[in-house]
Structures are given as structure tokens and as C-alpha cells.
Design goal:
With 383 residues, this protein is mainly beta. It folds into two domains: 125 residues, Immunoglobulins (Immunoglobulin-like, Sandwich); 220 residues, Glucose Permease (Domain IIA), CATH 2.70.70. The protein contains three helices and 27 strands. It is globular and about 65 Å long. About 3% of the residues have low confidence.
């Protein structure tokens, strides 16, 4: 190559190297975010709602502080749901970290879960979502704002399984609330090396009288609770998968001793009602279970009685649907109820069991079909 051409070539290379920032993509190690499990939407108050968890792992060498999370339509980037810093504090959990600590700051190598529940803009329509997370990288007094987009998920258009009533009559309070820090929605169990959330959609049913009381006279005696001993019903045709019927029962609340987490269910029944679909009934009365593994049951059949066994603060029926025949080692999946009458709700649970629930707007019961009872609502099932 002529000397002149070599000079020109090296001059071009020198220019390229001197402007390397324009040609080389900058890379910065930050976070890994992903959604480990996505289920179908469920209908609540006429809206299609989705529940899932976003896992965040800090791979950066610096700590970071979470600021904003946006859930976007992956097709056109329109906003579906937004969580600002104030609301993030109520939705973020770092396993092993005290709730008193700053749960929005993740040290290098740490991990957090963001619990998400929100309404979708369309009912029973498939959607593709993606997440945009904004946070500050912290290096001493220096804050570097970072925004990343990722963790895409697909939500199918298929509606959740519709179940029959688990109980007769009522009124029954459907007790659950996604924001409770120690509620079923937020309690993971690690079984065989995998963390799962079996109670993601669990509901605890407590029977009330027409004055909103759950017991008569001395509530310390469990037989005085209105729900105690009530018939528990098969919510679908199916086959009994497993039964636990050897847990004793305290006759009083004051004499109750909480069992270990692995015995949280107390006496229970599991019914296989479809592929990867198992209904769990927990806290059943000792000696009341009328079915055996392998037995076929029909929807509406009496299978047991409501009791006071396992981890519980009073007689009630715990109901959830999961992917495996394991009370703690399966993922909770949504379900809707075929029909119920909505009587009202308890916006303030401090009045629960002491005062009458807040009635519906017109004071009359509302017939609801193929929905999930809203948190802490009061419902009536046909006898």
C-alpha cells in the first residue's frame, strides 16, 4: 500500500477511535426484572383484574432506590397502571428484611418483590404488557437516574374457572385484602427449593348474622360462632385428590395453640377439578370429612363441615385454587363464582363483627354472576 494511502487509513482510524463514544454502545449493569408466574384475569366489580408479582434483583455494584413503576401496553406503550414512590412502599417486599427498614433501597445483590393488582382496560381480551422501572443508582452522595424497560408478559383472553358456591346461605363475609402484609396474597412458601404463592387468590369465608356479628354470647367458645359446623360443598364435579383429617381442635379461642407453618391448613380437602386445577378447603372440623382420595364428587355435594383447625384466628372456611395437589407447594390461580348476592362490604375492618356491614347503594341485594367477591364484601349464597 502506498505510504500516502496508509497515512489516510490511519488518520481515519484515529478519528474513529477519538469519537468512540459515538460508535460504541454504553453498557451499565443494573437490575434483572422478571415475572415468574402469570395467571388469567379475574372479574371483580364488573372489571377484569390481574394479580401477579414482579421480581427485582440488583446486579449493580451500587445500591439503588426504586422510584416509579409503569405497566405499559407493549404494543403502543400506553400506560395501563402506574405506581409512584409512595404507593411502591406498600407494594414492595424484600425477603428477610424487617418491614421497619427502607424497603425501596436495594443493596448490591439484594432482591425484592413488587406485588401488583390492577384493572385491565378490556375484559377477556388478550394483552401484552411490559414494565418500565425508574430508580436512582446511589454512589455516595451521587444519584444517577436510570430508567429501564423489560419483563414482558402476555395475558390470555381466557376467563378463569367458574365455581359453584362453597357454602350455603349466609350472610358470609369474603375476607381478604391484597395489601395486607401478612395476608394470603403476600405469603410465599419455599417447597422443594421453589418459592410459590398458593394463597394468591385465597378467600376466607366467615358467617355473620343479620346484625353483622360472627358469634353469639361468648365468642371465645367456637361453637358460638355462626359458621362453625356449617356444611362445606364441592364447588365442581371432580375427584378427591387428598385429605388431611387428623388435626385436633381447640374448643375455645383462648385455648388455641398455633401450629407450625407446614400445618397451617389444619384438616383439609383437595379436589382435582381439571388439569393443573385443585380446589383446597382448609380449617375443617375434625371427623367431619365425608370423602376419601380417589372418590368422585358432584358439584353441591356436602364434603365436610366448617371448623377451627390449623393456623386461624376463628372458625372459617379457607378456599383457594392451585396448580398442584400441594397446599403450600403450588401456585394460586384465580377463580370466579357462578353466582352470589352482594349485600355490602366492610371498608373498615375494625368494625367487623361489631357492627353491620355497609349496605349496597340502594340497600337491596345485588345478584352477581361469574365474578370474584370484592375484598371484605358480604355475600349470600342460595340454599
Amino acid at each position: 500500500m502506498p505510504a500516502k494511502n496508509k497515512y489516510i487509513l490511519w488518520a481515519v482510524i484515529a478519528i474513529i477511535l477519538s469519537q468512540g463514544k459515538s460508535y460504541a454502545q454504553q453498557y451499565q449493569t443494573t437490575v434483572d426484572m422478571r415475572v415468574p408466574f402469570v395467571s388469567a384475569p379475574t372479574a371483580i366489580n364488573g372489571k377484569s383484574c390481574i394479580y401477579y408479582e414482579l421480581n427485582i434483583a440488583n446486579f449493580a455494584k451500587d445500591s439503588l432506590r426504586l422510584k416509579i413503576l409503569d405497566v405499559l401496553n407493549a404494543i403502543n406503550s400506553s400506560a395501563i397502571f402506574n405506581v409512584d414512590e409512595t404507593r411502591l412502599k406498600t407494594r414492595v417486599k424484600q425477603p428477610g428484611i424487617s418491614p421497619k427498614d427502607d424497603n425501596l433501597t436495594l443493596s448490591p445483590g439484594s432482591f425484592a418483590v413488587i406485588y401488583l393488582e390492577f384493572s385491565l382496560p378490556f375484559k377477556n381480551t388478550a394483552m401484552h404488557l411490559v414494565h418500565r422501572l425508574e430508580f436512582d443508582l446511589l454512589n455516595g452522595n451521587k444519584k444517577t437516574p436510570v430508567s429501564i424497560k423489560g419483563a414482558p408478559i402476555s395475558i390470555g383472553s381466557k376467563a378463569p374457572l367458574v365455581l359453584g358456591p362453597p357454602l350455603n346461605g349466609g350472610p358470609w363475609a369474603a375476607i381478604y385484602e391484597p395489601s395486607w402484609k401478612t395476608g394470603h396474597r403476600r405469603v410465599f412458601y419455599t417447597i422443594n427449593g421453589t418459592a410459590r404463592l398458593p394463597g394468591r387468590f385465597a378467600i376466607d369465608f366467615i358467617k355473620l348474622d343479620n346484625n353483622g356479628r360472627y358469634a353469639t354470647h361468648n365468642e371465645d367458645t367456637i361453637r358460638n360462632w355462626h359458621g362453625y359446623g356449617n356444611n362445606v360443598l364441592a364447588v365442581s364435579d371432580g375427584v378427591i385428590a387428598s385429605v388431611q383429617n387428623n388435626f385436633p381442635e381447640s374448643s375455645t379461642l383462648s385455648g388455641y395453640q398455633s401450629p407450625s407453618p407446614e400445618n397451617a391448613t389444619g384438616n383439609y380437602i383437595s379436589i382435582k377439578i381439571g388439569k393443573d386445577q385443585f380446589v383446597f378447603y382448609e380449617h375443617l372440623k375434625p371427623g367431619s370429612i365425608k370423602v376419601k382420595p380417589g372418590q368422585k364428587v358432584k358439584r353441591g355435594e356436602v364434603i365436610a363441615s366448617l371448623g377451627f383447625t390449623g393456623q386461624t384466628t376463628g372458625p372459617h372456611l379457607h378456599l383457594h385454587l392451585a396448580t398442584k395437589d400441594s397446599p403450600l407447594g403450588a401456585e394460586g390461580i384465580p377463580f370466579d363464582l357462578e353466582q352470589f348476592k352482594l349485600l355490602g362490604s366492610y371498608p373498615d375492618l375494625s368494625t367487623f363483627g361489631k357492627k353491620l356491614w355497609r349496605s349496597t347503594v340502594n340497600g337491596a341485594s345485588i345478584l352477581v354472576s361469574k365474578e370474584r367477591p370484592a375484598p371484605n364484601s358480604v355475600v349470600l349464597f342460595d340454599k
